[in-house]
């Protein structure tokens, strides 16, 4: 049980984990270096704890003390209570869901470790948009993907906005980095996976490729706009397309991912 | 051919169509009342024209004059040239894609008209988020839906952000309102459609329901958060679910729509 304590000074060092949350560049450097990430909102905080992440501290506006009572009772980390105006001053934005937690990162597993137990994995290249990344994790979790593998230039799934958009799914689907890129894809193939690149110019229809019949399938998706790079396409075993109508040239990557994750898991 | 003219006064009445674009409430009232909508960016403007919408006027920053040369040559509507700072002053935001067009709305078709020629329709209830709505139109177009039917409380597909997120797909997939709601769903059924409600609590798996075998299918989707209302669920012929893994309780409505649109159209 942690005793909530009111903090009134925005420069109080106990609030350091929460400063400048809207400065993406700053947070992108700081969070991995300091081994923390920010969980925002009651649901996401509960899901992070349920997934086994250790809490460093919590920042609550007074009206959230009641809602989070049981979390506080279980916590051994400090709980800082701040007025909404102070929360905004420290974080840089109006914290609608007046509950933030600073959580401790865990070491990422190796890709090989995840591949040993998986049958369906998503491989993402160059996804730098946190909203798209979070949405893809949410779909990956919901639609039964076993793991997500990220190219080195993908954004951080534990960045606040990605965590929030994923509704905490970044805690339930294990993920790892594939480095060096794209040669580390060879290890995916060596683990028994067939590498299917999703691309509007793919030679074969997704339905014809029948990915649900593959014992082990890796679905490769590229960033919004450019799609998979030439090097990634060359490293794939097969290029498949989702058929398009009405003269549309591409799907949003989040929609393409949902379709592909569904297709690879449906009987 | 329209002769581009420089405008320097933010209060110039020729710029009236473009004032206060970030004020959602204001624009939501004004645009339908004045019979206009705003297309933003080169691609979207071209797609609106290709779809047969008439241009009322165009607002360009100087560096877009070259890119839009052919559009200007074809236009009989006035072309206003403004500096980026003035564009920001008038619209209320920094216009990244320095090209805006005010387009004339066309009367919406009746649902019955669309149903006469369609085999696959999406029925959306309570979608008030313009980004979700635009994303669903983009998927509906790409994945081969013939029409979209909207409950009376759905947002306006021609609102700027919806148009942009849809990448102009709101111009290529015809849509209509279903009013009164939900009793107008009877007309959908009378037109030969089976009404499938997508809901996490659905009794049957989407794959088992095999919607692609139906001669005519209407896929009902509810708003993010609450999903379809009890009344809408009661009006459906069948409730189907997309199976969920990892303890996830729901998909984002855009992801669910993409999966359902794919499933109803894949062989």
UniProtKB/TrEMBL annotation, chains A, B:
GO biological process: methylation; RNA processing
CDD domains in alphabetical order: SpoU-like_rRNA-MTase
GO molecular function: RNA binding; RNA methyltransferase activity
Stretches assigned to coiled coil: none
Ion transport in keyword set: no
Start and end residues of each RNA 2-O ribose methyltransferase substrate binding domain: 38-109
Cellular component terms per the entry's GO annotation: cytoplasm
SMART domains reported in the protein's UniProt record: SpoU_sub_bind
InterPro entries, per the entry: Alpha/beta_knot_MTases, MRM3-like_sub_bind, Ribosomal_eL30-like_sf, rRNA_Methyltransferase, SpoU_MeTrfase, SpoU_subst-bd, tRNA_m1G_MTases_N
UniProt key word Nucleotide-binding: no
Keywords in alphabetical order: Methyltransferase, Transferase
Similarity comment: Belongs to the class IV-like SAM-binding methyltransferase superfamily. RNA methyltransferase TrmH family.
PANTHER family: RRNA METHYLASE, RRNA METHYLTRANSFERASE 3
Protein name in the entry: RNA methyltransferase
Organism annotation: Kitasatospora camelliae
């Amino acid at each position: 049980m942690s005793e909530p304590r009111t903090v009134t000074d925005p420069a109080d060092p106990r609030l350091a984990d929460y400063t400048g949350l809207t400065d993406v560049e700053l947070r992108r450097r700081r969070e991995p270096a300091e081994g923390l990430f920010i969980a925002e909102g009651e649901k996401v905080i509960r899901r992070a704890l349920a997934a086994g992440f250790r809490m460093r501290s919590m920042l609550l506006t007074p009206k959230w003390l009641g809602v989070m009572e049981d979390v506080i009772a279980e916590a051994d980390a400090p709980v800082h209570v701040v007025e909404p105006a102070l929360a905004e001053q420290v974080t840089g934005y109006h914290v609608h869901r007046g509950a933030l937690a600073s959580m401790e990162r865990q070491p990422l597993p190796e890709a090989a470790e995840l591949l040993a137990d998986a049958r369906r994995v998503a491989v993402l290249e160059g996804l730098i948009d946190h909203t798209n990344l979070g949405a893809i994790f949410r779909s990956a979790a919901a639609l039964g993907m076993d793991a997500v593998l990220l190219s080195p230039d993908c954004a951080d799934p534990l960045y606040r906005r990605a965590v929030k958009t994923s509704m905490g799914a970044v805690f339930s689907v294990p993920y790892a980095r594939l480095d060096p890129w794209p040669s580390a894809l060879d290890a995916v193939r060596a683990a028994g996976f067939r590498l299917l690149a999703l691309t509007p110019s793919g030679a074969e229809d997704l339905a014809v490729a029948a990915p649900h019949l593959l014992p082990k399938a890796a679905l490769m998706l590229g960033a919004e706009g450019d799609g998979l790079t030439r090097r990634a396409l060359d490293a794939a075993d097969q290029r498949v397309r989702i058929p398009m109508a009405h003269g549309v040239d591409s799907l949003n990557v989040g929609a393409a991912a949902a379709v592909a994750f569904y297709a690879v898991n449906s009987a």
